[in-house]
Amino acid sequence: MFASGGAGPVGKFVIQCLRHISTKVESIASAGSTNRMGIVKNFSADVALSYKEENTCLTCLNAIDRLTCALHVPT
Q1: For the domain 2-63, what is the CATH code?
Q2: Where along the chain do its domains lie?
Q3: By percentage, how much of the chain surpasses pLDDT 90?
């Protein structure tokens, strides 16, 4: 699962929930600085990446076996 802004409160919540729910789902989280990437790693994200320095899409695709898309469509 990809958490954009993984060092923020919602991102940290998502990463921690994944750890408690399943060990089979990899957590990938992005952050805007090296310091915030450290925060993401401290919250047990499998992959931490900088959206300012890396190609987020390629990094995510290289880190996962299967891609499932979830879209929020307002009704």
Answers
A1: 3.40.50.720
A2: 2-63
A3: 0
